[in-house]
Write a structure and sequence with these properties.
Mean pLDDT of chain A: 88
Structural class of chain A: mainly alpha
Distance between the termini of chain A: 16 Å
Helix content of chain A: over 70%
Number of strands of chain B: 10
CATH topology of the domain at 10-96 and 164-247 in chain B: Rossmann fold
CATH class of chain A: Mainly Alpha
Oligomer: heterodimer
CATH architecture of the domain at 10-96 and 164-247 in chain B: 3-Layer(aba) Sandwich
Distance between the termini of chain B: 41 Å
Shape of chain A: flat
Strand order of the largest sheet of chain B: 6-7-8-3-9-10
Order of helices and strands of chain B: EEEHEEHEHHHEHEHEEHH
CATH topology of chain A: MetI-like fold
CATH superfamily of chain A: MetI-like
Bound molecules: adenosine-5'-triphosphate, magnesium ion
CATH architecture of chain A: Orthogonal Bundle
Low-confidence stretches of chain A: none
Number of helices of chain B: 9
Number of helices of chain A: 9
CATH superfamily of the domain at 10-96 and 164-247 in chain B: P-loop containing nucleotide triphosphate hydrolases
Number of strands of chain A: 0
Helix content of chain B: 25-40%
Low-confidence stretches of chain B: none
Structural class of chain B: alpha/beta
Mean pLDDT of chain B: 92
Shape of chain B: globular
Radius of gyration of chain B: 18 Å
Chain lengths: ~260, ~250
Amino acid sequence: MNLIKPCLFQLSFWLRLAALFSLLLLGGCADNWGWYVVSPATETGRQNLAFLIDGLYYTMALSVTAISISICLGLIVALPGLSARRTPKTINRVFVELVRAIPILVLILWVYYGLPQVAGISISVFWAGVLALAISDSAFQAEIFRAGIQSIDRGQYEAAQSISLNYRNTMRYVILPQAIKRILPALGNQLVYMLKMSSLVSVIGMQELTRRANELVVTEYRPLEIYTILVLEYLVVILIVSAGVRWLERRLDTS
Amino acid sequence: MTRSSDKPFIQIQSVSKHFGQFCALDSVSLDIELGQKLVICGPSGSGKSTLIRCINRLEIHEKGKIFIDGKIVDGSPAGQDVLRNNVGMVFQQFNLFPHLTILENLMLGPVRARQLPESEARDLAMQYLERVRIPEQLDKYPAQLSGGQQQRVAIARALCMMPKIMLFDEPTSALDPEMIAEVLDVIEELADSGMTMICVTHEMGFARQVADMMLFMDHGKIVETGPPKTFFTAPKSDRCKLFLSQILRH
Ligand SMILES: Nc1ncnc2c1ncn2[C@@H]1O[C@H](COP(=O)(O)OP(=O)(O)OP(=O)(O)O)[C@@H](O)[C@H]1O
Ligand SMILES: [Mg+2]
């Protein structure tokens, strides 16, 4: 079983990719496509292609940094939500509801243009993007963590208490390791979501995949081909990331 | 064993516990001496679990007082300390940590709560695994063991904290019949070694063997107590008589 599953998954993965490429190739034969802008056969084509693909670094850097921060933030927000007392619970609810009500794009704009004035600090495009994405995602992370932690049987807390573990050690050694295993699929989804949302940071000038495609469209005026490449870029990255998440899940499952 | 007072080791003084409107414990009083083996029985919902869970504060009683070793158990730091140092518990559903190996299950408390060095904790764990007769399973995960083995691991895990008293809440009622004996044997051995214990169980054969006091509960009250001899042969109350006749019939 364990041998067949990854193969199956990879097969379907490659099938999907192959289907897409063949579609594009077919399309490429039609008159209204002008693949020369990104053709690896010409010097400018290669340059344009490299320019587009280089944005991957920023897309990845943005998403991975933002999700790391949002996971920590989400956990910090989730814990008071699990309290039996009223005040911590309210703090959790207010944060989650407020943050969820703000569109990500609006948050990005506000953090980049508004926060420097309010806080009297200067903030780079990259960190404004990371901050906005992380805050916005942390509300979802908090809900994921809360559900994950709540799904752990009460007996686990009681057993931990009966061997004298304090709250911190109970969370760290008993509850969270089990909760993380259960919420890993949701965290994986969230990373994929984050990769897609990072395209919004293009509006404040972050040179990630989407911004670069926009800029190239302005100079080359071949939106169809360039945005198709953009679609492909996201598709490949996200398929690879989801494959990685599933691989991780399987590994954790067997241990 | 050192004692800081000559009062009973555990004193329960008119303890009450409600769940909403429902009265699960109705002003229960009980003394337990060191070395005593108390077996609690009674119909479902009579408050047996609630009583022993109040002793180690898994449930928080709202009226009355509980003293262990002369110190009041009320959630204060001193009360928590006396709980930590004295009371071990074994659950009906084992409650082993599924993501940890058997050895890790046993070492977690000593290492994280007692700050014992890993090597000492490992020796301790091995010692108790041998005592519950499963030293060879140390690297497996709980799910790879049978129910009987899991419950024996849970007993060893509690013993690794070196408690003076062990609480058992129906330790065999989640087990297949053929595994009950192996767990009861371990508990019996523990009783013979002088461990103080309170055990909720419906295994009356075991109770006769091990108990030096029987306790029958109904509707949140202690209805009858006594040494097993008189308890089984000449129960005083009708409710206890009825219960015993029902449970001993099969
Ligand atoms: N957390 C809870 N919330 C509400 N009611 C509870 C809770 N725990 C126990 N009860 C109720 O309190 C009563 C006593 O429960 P308890 O578990 O002490 O009974 P028991 O004697 O151990 O029964 P059993 O033999 O079924 O284990 C039951 O009627 C139960 O429904
Ligand atoms: Mg019970």
